[in-house]
Amino acid sequence: MIWKCRDDFRPAEAFELFNTFEINFKDEKEVNELLQLVMELSNNVRLWENKGYTPNEIFEKFEKPNQRPLPDKSFDFGGSNVIDMKSRQKIGRNDSCPCGSGKKYKKCCLEKEG
Fold first, then answer.
1. Less CB within 10 Å around the terminal CB: N or C of the chain?
2. Quick check: helix, strand or coil at residue 31?
3. Is the pLDDT assigned to residue 2 strictly greater than 50?
4. Does the model's pTM come out above 0.70?
């Protein structure tokens, strides 16, 4: 069986091919191992579209140097994190809306965010 490496690879296609050839897996661990190998292959194949570079080489050369480290403090997803740019204060649900409508924030723009 020859596997054609493409940039539009979908795992479902691989499983359709395995079904065609009646290839069965013992458990989920075997499936995961195979998918790891397939992803490793696809990330290390030189592509014409990448001017002969592999996806891993592109990542190392162009993307990795521009990444920033994660912040020390985790993100707070609870509640409103909207800040009024004039006063530089966090806007509470019962404060007037910064859009200037005259309504409370909870009845105006908070509903638009959610």
1. C
2. helix
3. no
4. no
